[in-house]
């Protein structure tokens, strides 16, 4: 049987160890916390300090950066990037190739479409159809 981890060198030359998540085989860095009920698809990365809550789904090619928080039953689509320290609320849906900037906040239940950029520190709330709500 093959090993259940992989070592990858980051941009600073540090060697990081990632284990394969039992539910989906995505790569989880040492120091990240992923609930066993979450699904992290193969080809997705979860960086150190990130937290993925119960029922969340991280699609293939998604990247959850350091110290990001993904709420319960949130969905992160393929190719999306959740920046360092960003927070995605419960039941939120982040679209394909969408980028959520460092420290940004997406409210619970929000629907963020495909190819959207949420700027660093921005707070966004939408209804379930993706229409922006007043802050």
TrEMBL record:
InterPro entries: Hexapep, LpxD, Trimer_LpxA-like_sf. Transmembrane segments: none annotated. Keywords: Acyltransferase, Lipid A biosynthesis, Lipid biosynthesis, Lipid metabolism, Transferase. It comes from the Bacteria. This is Transferase. The lineage of its organism: Bacteria, Bacillati, Actinomycetota, Actinomycetes, Micrococcales.
